[in-house]
Amino acid sequence: DDLDALLRPWYYSKSLTDPINTAADKWNLLPAFLRVKGLIKQHTDSFDYFVDIELKKILKANEFIFTDDKRKWIKFVDIRVGKPCRIEDARAGYVQTEVTPNECRLRDMTYAAPIYLDFIYPRQAGNVRKTNVLIGRLPMMLRSSKCVLKGRSESEMACLNECAVDPGGYFIVRGQEKVILVQEQLSKNRVIVESFKGVIQASVTSHTANVKTKTYVLLKKGHIYLKHNSLSEDIPVAVMLRAMGVQSDHEILLLAAGNDAQYQDEFAPNLELAALEGVFTQEQALDFIATRLKPDRFASRRQERTPKQQALEKLAGTIIPHVEVEGMNFRPKALYVAFMTRRVLMAMNDPKLVDDRDYVGNKRLELAGQMLSLLFEDLFKDCVRQIKGNMDKILKKANPTQEFDPLRLVEQIESRITSGMERAISTGNWTLKRFRMDRAGVTHVLSRLSYISALGMMTRITSQFEKTRKVSGPRALQPSQFGMLCTSDTPEGEACGLVKNLALMTHITTADDEAPVRKIIYILGAEDVTSVSGTEIYGNGAYIVFINGTPAALTRQPKQFLLGFRKFRRMGRISEFVSIFINHHHNGVHIATDEGRVCRPLIVVEKGKSKVTARFLESLRKGAMDFDDALSRGLVEYLDVNEENDSNIAVYEKDINEHTTHLEIEPFTILGAVAGLIPYPHHNQSPRNTYQCAMGKQAIGAIAYNQFTRIDTLLYLMVYPQKPMVTTRTIELVKYDKLPAGQNAVVAVMSYSGYDIEDALVLNKASCDRGFGRCQIFKKISMPLKAYGNGYTDRLDDRDPSNTRHRKIGKDGLVEVGSELENGDMYMLKASPINQSQAIPQKDQKWSPMHMSYKLPDPSYADKVMITANEANTTILKIQTRQTRRPEIGDKFSSRHGQKGVVGLLAEQADMPFSDSGVVPDIIMNPHGFPSRMTVGKMLELVSGKAGVLTGKQEYGTPFGGSKVEDMGSILVKHGFSYSGKDHLTSGITGESLPFYVFFGPIYYQKLKHMVQDKMHSRSTGPRAILTRQPTEGRSRQGGLRLGEMERDCLIAYGASQLLLERLMISSDAHDVDVCQGCGMMGYNGWCQSCGSSRGVTKMTMPYAAKLLIQELMSMNVKASLQLADEFPREE
């Protein structure tokens, strides 16, 4: 196993901090962690949670369908997801052979598994149970527990034509790879206090199975009110508390303000307000609220309820619905409202107590499982409604012709669930009526430019924040993102700081059960908060214990409570992802078990000693232990952002003191998978690392082991990818060295020829001849043979040997594999039936040829030809074309430090400088790229790479560690080179020694996908747009090159009026019109329509767009008349 090879202690030059005893090898926890969690695992974990647990929960919530006839009903018993299979197998009910993801990609199918349902319904003889009824197909996430690839060895993967290194975690829908990106949301069911336009308000978004609403407690004109959508006006808080059964003024005062005299004074006016409204009892309060309820949109047909009952139901079910009311016991809800009120009072006194929306602890990340669960629930509820409607329809008939058959009704919903799931994933539009949720762009096509671009996409986080708003808050790098989100990997431009990436060791939690946590709270001696009076709640040293934001208990020894709780977690009595922390500002102990929190593992430190010992690491290395053992033994634990704030974390073992609670596993894990490829990033200026994160995804390399069995729309492959001489830990952990994207080039840093100005590179022509920077480009041509209503389908014609354009085509009407396609060559002789609707005999049908010809300017080769059929049994023809390109002037290259440049010159090897040992550089780079950019990491890479070449091993440029410059320098000296990496060069042109030393050595260079051949464009005459008669736009439409407003301003400044006329009219859209000198209107054929005569009608030339504007203005009743003057007036 590659990871085992990784685990051998080869790391000879330890790090920047040498004297470390056991923890020198503590990074061994990293590969062990990445086996069970991290990077892609959160997607698969979340999906598995949905398939195994959420589906059953959704079924349980909607298990009964009752009809109007009480004797007829359906009860759903169980729901299961099978193994992925083809649609024909799913309907037949048995699977002949497994379907592989690769087959789905090639055949444009959906990689999906059947969903089976068991249900019971009544008959005369007794209840009947139906099992394994197919109700739809669920698109299956690759590498999840039900996937064909789960747990396969590398050789088994190869038999399935799948790549063992491919991350998985995406879906294949209609042949396209789709990723559900991680979505960032504000956390649900938590109180957030913010100052909004000077108004202090505490808001909570409650999310339960049925409703999603937002409740506010806000300060308005010195009084505190509760605001909610279902209320027509804001209700004073004192009235609200009274309606919830808190009767006495004294108790209301204590619950909201506690024993603090200042708070009591500030809250007192609210009690007076309630008295002014004449509200003294619960009854009066309910009457007060009942008159301010908005009428229900869906008024129920049940018996009319009194306004009081309506008010009570609203309080129980719609206002703060996530705090449940059991048996009309409103105490927990009253406490919650009081708690929100108290937070507002505190924020009035101390502005520091306002929450920060951008703080990572207040955020939740939604994964594929949660998104699919919302979607499935919506579809399932729809289907249940449909089944009930159909059942009622059948039972309404006095003498039903067919017997009541639920099986048929349940089977009818199959296509609805299948197409609903498929449509959502393939379009990325999540539209749920229940939650008024309408999101676009949830899914994206997996970017397969390079292996790293696919991996980077799996760890990407998008927020629902509008990108156009110029707000710096959400975009800034927050201190709370340390270790959770990558500090460098974010795009430039409008999405900067809004699109983020997960760090290397981040895990996103799934939901855990609250019940065991509640038990443990009471075991640790906390008392139930509902049975406690207001005096005790805010008594001295009393802390409220919140579970997921809901008050649950009261403790008087928060410190001991915390320690006890953590002990239980380390013993494994409760889930390792439950977090607990104390907030001393508002005397609360917060426990979180909800899904979507970001957390990361840290080593536990007790009594100043790390609990991970050399002995444990030894057994980890031998494979006797794994990461889960470290967890269950309490050596390592997961902390989320809130709990991190409660901890004291040392980075290295030497930093541990008596207050330290945890130790970092490795400091370089604060970076993500993409930024981890950069060697020595801690020596670069920060934006350079950000640039490399963007460019590393555009580098051409290898994309997967199965890259030659795929037919992708566009595939870039490097002909000779190499693994980098200077590697990092992350490169080995994410297997970049198995699928690299770049080559080690020998670089001389000097100026040469003047073709290297502004970052241009001079390439050695001989290196390009030997394959440096050479790449292949594969493109797909796909064509379905359509079937028509009368039973005819498109067909392929025979070739015509006499036609020269058919010479590349084989007997079957398709291009032969390996033949060269040039512009105008035919590659497919498709023909369509002329009559597509009436059924007519074969001999009468006429066919119209629709022969396809190759349109691109540069020739390419037919690499593969494939004929297959998709799920709808439509024949699909796919042709893959191949082009090999060598580097040319204008192609873009980049090193791993954000130093990008285009090729400025391909120089002959004879003219290039060479070193004393006869080495000629592959690339010459201008030294002006260094001073202003401060990419010292690039220099260190050169020195380390040179030392590695001499010793024959890869050096390490791991962030905050790696091979040290002094060691590298001494290796160079030992092998007879200069300590600083500079060499003596001889000019290839004159043969004389160069009068200076040149910085000379290997640097890893990436070839980027931006090539001159794809961008080059010019035009003389060509197509025009129909409406404006101006040249079209864009390279693909042979468009013109636009002279824009700013260029026009330049020409005006020069006074070049004839050039302006030529560019903006003659070469663009000159048009002759007839104009009447009398009225200034346009006429035609020498006749003026408005004057009704041909006198004074002359011809003139104007831009067609101007003529169009005048006519469009006329259509709006605006007359633009043309005043004519003779261009060359005659001397009278």
TrEMBL record:
The keyword Transcription applies. It is an enzyme of class 2 (transferase). One of its GO terms (biological process) is tRNA transcription by RNA polymerase III. Keywords: DNA-directed RNA polymerase, Metal-binding, Nucleotidyltransferase, Nucleus, Transcription, Transferase, Zinc, Zinc-finger. It comes from the Eukaryota. Residues 38-400 form the RNA polymerase beta subunit protrusion domain. SUPFAM superfamilies: beta and beta-prime subunits of DNA dependent RNA-polymerase. One of its GO terms (molecular function) is DNA-directed RNA polymerase activity. Pfam families: RNA_pol_Rpb2_1, RNA_pol_Rpb2_2, RNA_pol_Rpb2_3, RNA_pol_Rpb2_4, RNA_pol_Rpb2_5, RNA_pol_Rpb2_6, RNA_pol_Rpb2_7. PROSITE patterns: RNA_POL_BETA. It catalyses: RNA(n) + a ribonucleoside 5'-triphosphate = RNA(n+1) + diphosphate. One of its GO terms (cellular component) is RNA polymerase III complex. Gene3D superfamilies: 2.40.50.150, 3.90.1070.20, 3.90.1100.10, DNA-directed RNA polymerase, subunit 2, domain 6, RNA polymerase alpha subunit dimerisation domain, RNA polymerase Rpb2, domain 2. Its main location: nucleus. It is found in: Nucleus. InterPro entries: DNA-dir_RNA_pol_su2, DNA-dir_RNAP_su2_dom, DNA-dir_RNAP_su2_hyb_sf, RNA_pol_bsu_CS, RNA_pol_bsu_protrusion, RNA_pol_Rpb2_2, RNA_pol_Rpb2_2_sf, RNA_pol_Rpb2_3. Residues 674-1037 form the DNA-directed RNA polymerase subunit 2 hybrid-binding domain. Its EC number is 2.7.7.6. Belongs to the RNA polymerase beta chain family. DNA-dependent RNA polymerase catalyzes the transcription of DNA into RNA using the four ribonucleoside triphosphates as substrates. Second largest core component of RNA polymerase III which synthesizes small RNAs, such as 5S rRNA and tRNAs. Proposed to contribute to the polymerase catalytic activity and forms the polymerase active center together with the largest subunit. Pol III is composed of mobile elements and RPC2 is part of the core element with the central large cleft and probably a clamp element that moves to open and close the cleft. Component of the RNA polymerase III (Pol III) complex consisting of 17 subunits. PANTHER family: DNA-DIRECTED RNA POLYMERASE I SUBUNIT 2. This is DNA-directed RNA polymerase subunit beta. It comes from Pseudocercospora fijiensis (strain CIRAD86).
